[in-house]
Amino acid sequence: MKKAAVLLGLLTVALTAFVIFKPKTKPPLKSLTAQQIQAAIKNAFPANTRSVFDKSDQFILLSLDPSWDSLGTTGKNIFHGFRILGQTAVKDRQVRQELRRLYYDGLADAHFSAACFNPAHGIRAVKGRNVLDLLICFHCSQVKVVANGQEHGYVHWGSSHRAAFDEVLTQARVPLGRR
What is the pTM of this model? Predict the structure, then answer.
């Protein structure tokens, strides 16, 4: 009987602690409308550069040093002011398609962004003479868009796909930027 009372007491304490300290669930994020998604895609691809992204001759994934120490430096191993830690030409069609799909998914999942902008990843898509560069910050959910050397600002981007980008870089033995 004494053991049952002790067990009942422990169970009561555990249940009370769970009720008091249970993790708060986040409310579901508001879904974007099709019109909002199309507007995000339009902003993400200035001057009709979407075809450069979708049908590029070259698709390069870069690992960047997101620290402010590298910001503004110039030279061969610099990508729009950030030091390149490594890069890989993504030649496998399925991997390219998956990275593109994840990018579009991020555009559709964009709900907020912070103000840090410390990009650890970049994409360079080249089709003919056209170049589209994307600098991706998973911390603040923003992408800086540069088309043919001209900055076109930032777009909000969902930031849940870092692991997939890291996996492509890791498989190519490219060092990853600081987290």
Answer: 0.76
